Amino acid sequence: MGRNDVQDYLISQIDQLLAEYHICFIKWDMNRNVSEPGWPDAAGDQRELWVRYVHGLYRVWETLRERHPHVIWQSCSGGGGRADPGILRFADQIWVSDNTEPTMRLAIQEGFHSSFLRTRWRHGSPIWVHPICRSLFAFT
Question: Of 15, 29, 84, 92, which is the active-site residue?
Fold first, then answer.
C-alpha cells in the first residue's frame, strides 16, 4: 500500500462494497508478513516500505471514513502491529490480541492501556478458552 495506484484501487473496490452492501463494520487484520518487500521502480530507499505502507493505509482509511461515516473500523494485528497512535485518528477500536486466555490477557491489556485509551480496545472470549482449555464459569 505504499503505492498510490494500489491505494486508489483499494479505495475504489472497498468504497463500492460499502455502498452496495451497506456494511457497517470492518475489521482490518494484518496477520501476514511481507515476504518480498518493495517494488522495482520504487523511488528512494526500499527500507521506507513500512513508512509508505502506513501513510497509504492512513490515506485509504481516511478517504473511506469520509465517504462512509457510519462504518465502525477496527484495527487488528498479531502482536499489536496495527496499534500505533496514528491509527487512532481512523480506528474506532483496536483488537489488541487473539490471545484470550484470561491470565495472559491481563498482562496484554495492562501494557496496552498504559499507552491507549481503554475505550479503544476490544476483547471477547468464549466460555471455554482453547488451547489451554481453562473453563470459565458463567453465572446468570
Answer: 29
Rounded to whole angstroms, what are the CA distances from 82 to 74, 85, 95, 134? Answer: 10, 9, 9, 29
Peptide bond into 131 cis (omega under 30): yes
CATH number assigned to the domain comprising residue 18:
3.20.20.70
98 in active site: yes
Summarize pLDDT for 35-79 with one digit per residue, the tens: 666 777 777 776 678 888 889 999 999 999 999 999 999 888 654
Catalytic residue among 5, 8, 45, 98: 98
Q: 130 lies in which domain range?
A: 4-32+46-135
Q: What's the Cα-to-Cα distance from 51 to each of 6, 67, 100, rounded to whole Å?
A: 15, 25, 30
